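Re: [help] complex structure
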Amino acid sequence: MHHSDNPQVNRRQWLGASGAGLASLVLPLDAFAQQGGRRVLVIAATQDIPNFDPHIATGYSASFLLRNVYDALVRVEGSPPKPVPELAQSWTVSGDGKTYTFKLNPAARFHNGKPLTADDVVYSFKRALRLNKGNAWMIQGVVGQDSVTAVDAGTVRFNLLKPFAAFLHVLPWIWVVSKADVEANLGSDDGQTYLRTQTAASGGFKVRRAEAGNLYELDRVDGWQKGGGNLTGVIWRIVRETASQRLLIQRGEVHIAVDLTSEDMDALKDKPGVVRIIEPEYRTFSIKMNTRHGPMADLDLRKAVSYAVNYKGILDAAGYADLMVGPLPNGILGHNPQLAVYRTDMAKAKEHLAKSKSPNGGIKLTMAYVSGLEQQRRFGLVLLDSLKQLNIQLDIKPMLWPDMVAACAKPETFPDFFPVYQTANYGDPDNVAFAAYHSSRNGNWQNAVYANPEVDALIERGRAEPDSAKRVAIYRDMQQKVVADAPDIFGVLEKRKLALRDNVKGFQFAPVASNAIECFGLSLT
Amino acid sequence: MWSYLVRRLLLLVPVLLGLTVLVFAIARLLPGDPVALAAGPNASPAEIAAYGREFGLDRPLWEQYGRYLWGLLQGDLGVSIYTRRPVIEDLRAYLPATLELVLAAMTLAVLVGVPMGLWAAVQRDRWPDYLSRVLALGAISMPRFFLGLLLQLGLAMALGWLPLGGRFPITEELPLRITGLLTVDALLAGNLNAFWVACQHLLMPALAMSLSPLATIMRMMRGSTLEVLQQDYVLTERALGLPQRLIITKYVARNAFSATLTVIGLYFGWLLGGTVLVETVFDWPGLGLYATKAVVTQDFMPIIGVTLVIGTLFVLVNLLVDLLYGLLNPKVRPA
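Output below.
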């Protein structure tokens, strides 16, 4: 038969072809991005940068691009973060905390070579407020359309609508655009189409390449800024899997990985050439309770739950983390590390349960969590276990995030337990206090239901008070009142987990926006 | 033939119209508040309402649909409420990567699956048949993302033969964009080095994507070949003393391939909509991740845009399959 011969020929051909194929596949590893005098820092991150408009874009990836490409009046550095000069060389604040006067650095130039003047600053703030998107909320109600004036080409004055103690802390997030460039490309949408893909900036880097979903490359600008590191460029490489980020940093194909998990950090321990950064950050995780509707509206039941929670279990589930001590992030101005908070104590839990409307438990509560966020589910399981001891059942329901946001609109639709991660956008206690505990935020996912007029008054006093010592006292008072109301199960502060190659020099950790890496001062050796 | 082609292409219009109605309705009737989400955590109810108005979401559903269709006729697929980017721009950026991946995966699946299926049938119940059966079972059972991770650990991490992920080395400029398919653009530019580099990046994800269709194609090809081998005309050809190679390649393979072709057409559409896991593992900047993100955030316009594009491609590929039937078998050639 013919076909008895064919397999041998086929087999030989096949093996031959496979061998040749495999041999030709051997290739060198990707060359490191340091060739021909270029020193390009590569950062691996999961998030894309879909929009470059500094008055629209948000998220850590956009913040990375904007804080490197654009300049703001001041920037923050250190831990706790302190405002330091950027476009503004110096500033003065009036005694009532309402008037800020900034002297601009006369050397400041846009990438187009034109000098940056007070007019550009005024234009930028007005545009941010006019569009009312992106980070505009940080200055909304504090800076009005007529609040910003150019005293002369090198001086800008802000007459705030009301005193705002965190003003210098929000300024790094309101970037300055070139008025001439934007006006030349205004279109019908206030330059939004233009600035979505182009820049009108003055920062230490400019965009060289943008490949959506893949990478963004920045080139250093020999501009007005002096000093800084030795980088000639930076690549923001989108690597969606944290495990892939780990492999890349291990192989030296990226210099910084910004989205690593606790498991990745364990795996990177003692790996040659890799430096792990595990630092506390102002990012809280708490489980909000429905203080307005259903069984959790009962303060005693909330206290019973707060005492019943297995905090050690929550800490273990969180990996690299610290337990929260009250509503504010540990280490932030005004935080009280001595605050008496709820810790696991079944006797007290049962005591409060006995005083509640369900003295013997026997009820069923619901916790929603973001579908796919495994960590939140784990926290839910710890809660389920804790509540069993009070004879309370817990139904843990995964929900899509848009559905969860919709559920926050009314107390009637808000679940009994609602886990929330909250990242401070600026390094001031006002950020977390206002977003998470002021009643004006009700209906919003950061504070759907909790309202206490006394707490509101303290938060408002805290944001208006210019004196730091007085602010500390106000926030301590506020924390005590919030803890007494037990609106949240105060959970953990997960530490920020970054990995760097050991040839990256000049990196300084800051507990705000630490994954939106500031590159100007960095060097590669 | 031409009138058949035109008729089929015209049929595309009601199919796509139906698709828009369906997806439009489903996307809007889902619970959840994507506008509140997109407006950000700090937006007041008035700001959220204004945000919705900006995108015309306060209008009646029929009016929104009418505006969408009007835009569609002018090549406007709307704007993402999240990123504010026009959907057409996003599709232009992401579709070629996915298309290249799916085409490469299907090419691999066909090039390996068809001959192996044929060989397994010819060598029925001998070791090539057993080998193909084991391979098919393994390939069907293995989740694509898991295979992707194994390939990464083996070929990239341990052996260092292939890059870990991405479409092209990040420090090198891409070849001039013509089609968006890097391998094709590199060839068009006459840049063989770039073509080779793009192929190296494409190989692992395409391999991971190709296994499941490969296994199906192999089994289909084996089954239909066995059926054809029992036909009288094959017996006649053997009796006439035609060489086995000729019988298999000229008469058997051609007839057996018709049935497999249907599967290839169907798999193409299935792969287009199912790239997300492989794209995630290999950092492949394609449509899968874009679509998933849109679905998770209920971003209407990208959802509809992606569905339309995949629907169109699916219909077109199956039209091509129908035309190929005619080429393979004159009996089913359209008049």
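Residues 80 and 332 of chain B are 45 Å apart (CA to CA).
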